[in-house]
Amino acid sequence: MNSLDLLRSVPDLADHEVRRLLAAASGRHWTELLLGVELTTGEVEAFRALVEKRRAGEPLQYIEGVVPFGPIEVAVDRRVLIPRPETEQLFELACDAVEAPQVIVDLCTGSGNLALALKHTFRTAAVYATDLSADAIDVARYNAAEAGLDVTFLEGDLFEPLPEHLRGRVDLIVSNPPYIAESEVPDLPADVRDHEPHMALVAGPAGDEVLRRIAADAPGWLKPGGTIICEISEFHAPEVAGHFADLDGAIEMDLSGKERFVIGVAPR
Ligand SMILES: C[S@@+](CC[C@H](N)C(=O)[O-])C[C@H]1O[C@@H](n2cnc3c(N)ncnc32)[C@H](O)[C@@H]1O
Q1: pTM for the full model?
Q2: How many domains does the chain have?
Q3: What average pLDDT score do residues 164-192 get?
């Protein structure tokens, strides 16, 4: 079957999604598919199977299995959150905030996207990353091996698995923690609510529970003048800024003008 006919045969999905699904199913670049090529029966069947997954609400990124993030790419599946553009902005803020960091910590690492992008950028830094989910740590370690980047991934609760000798020595802490309140879950888009890990999204009844704990413990791990940058919910910015008051906390906007990040600097 010709690729152009196949692309036109799924009018209920967006054109760009259909192109990406056919590229994923066939292993061919979408520019080749738009020129019109003959596809094998196997390619057509694989495409139809992916279309059914997408129709059932599976996020496109899980179907494709890989997501670009800053200077790297990470593999993603149902065990980890799909990295978002806002978190790429967090990565850029972090790069601008520090110069030649020696020790970097990423809390709630998921696929390892932030930790690996930072290690790619700051090659001589020792980078540690933690996550409560053993599944997420498996994905992050796979991504590190694929990228050839040396990051220490540790399973456990926030700072708890970090080696004690890092206390007071960390130049940069980053985190995109769970920050959704339980009451906000019904308002999430269905593909997020039904497919991404609950543990990655929901912090507790109020939504700021994990950020509150990060803010309480961060001063003990940062070195004097060290920086912490966390992604936050635009609905909880005033409370979260209050949690970070000891670290001279400031709120930054994302590209759509929402209060999305808290930045704190440890006293010198
Ligand atoms: C919003 S996802 C962020 C994933 C990734 N950093 C990103 O930016 O795409 C939050 C992650 O925090 C992890 N997590 C939830 N509670 C945690 C805790 N108490 N300690 C460590 N990790 C936790 C979840 O398993 C999930 O992988």
Answers
A1: 0.95
A2: 2
A3: 96
Do 42 and 81 lie in a common domain?
no
Asked if 158 and 217 count as a contact pair (C-beta separation under 8 A), the reply is yes
Cα separation, 208 vs 82, in Å, equals 21
Which percentage of the chain shows pLDDT scores above 70? 100
Other CB atoms within a 10 A radius of the CB of residue 240 amount to 24
* Same domain, residue pair 103 and 234: yes
- How far is Cα 142 from Cα 139, in angstroms, rounded to an integer? 5
218 with 257, same domain?
A: yes
Say if residue 123 is in the same domain as residue 33. no
Helix extents (H) in 148-247? 190-195, 198-201, 209-221, 237-243
Residue 46 alpha carbon to ligand 1 centre in Å: 32
User: Could you tell which of 62, 69, 74, 81 is best to mutate to test the pocket of ligand 1, judged by most ligand atoms within 8 Å of the CB?
Assistant: 81
Residue 208 lies in a domain: yes
Using most ligand atoms within 8 A of CB, pick from 66, 131, 192, 231 the residue to mutate for ligand 1: 131
Ligand 1 pocket member 177 (CB < 6 A): yes
Give per-residue pLDDT as tens, 192-203: 999 999 999 999
Q: Which domain holds residue 45?
A: 3-56
Residue 61 in domain: no
